Amino acid sequence: MPIYITTQNASRLGSTVSEITSVLPSAATDSSSSSSSATVTTEVDKTAFSMLVPELISQLPTNPTSHLSVIIVGIETHICVTQTALDLLALGHKVYILADGVSSCNAGERPIALARLAREGCTVTTSESLLFELVGDAKDANFKAIAGLVKETKDETKSAVETFWGSHV
C-alpha cells in the first residue's frame, strides 16, 4: 500500500513530525519492487492546499478506469483534507476519511468539514473500523496482529474519539 505524505510549505510551517515519519517505511524504498505487498512512502512539499500536485499525481495510475481506495489522515480538515478529498472524488476514487485521524486548528471547523465530506461521497469512519474492514475476516492472517494493535491502543483511540466527538459518540 503506497503512502503519500505532503507538507504544506515546509520551509515556513515545518516538516512532517517525527512521531509519524519514525513509523513509516523509508521514502527511499524501491518503488519498482515486484512484490505487491511492498510499501512505498513518498513525501512531497507543496503550497497548494490539495495534495494532488503534479509530483504526486504522476505516481497515481494513469488508466482512467483504475480507481483507487484512498485513506486520508491529516491536519486542517476543513482546508487540505477537504480539498484533497474533493479532488480524489472528482477523479472517481473511493475516499475514506479517518475521523480520529484528522484535526483542525479551530475545533469547530472539523465536524462541519467531516459532514460536508460525507455528503460529497467520502466514507467518514474511524481507524478501528477501517482496520477491521481491511482485514475482513477473523481467519485473515493479519487479524491477530490487528486485534492486538486495537487492544494495545484502545485507551488512546477512545481518548481521541472522545476528544474529537465528545458526547456525540
TrEMBL record:
Residues 43-128 form the Isochorismatase-like domain. It comes from the Eukaryota. Belongs to the isochorismatase family. This is Isochorismatase-like domain-containing protein.
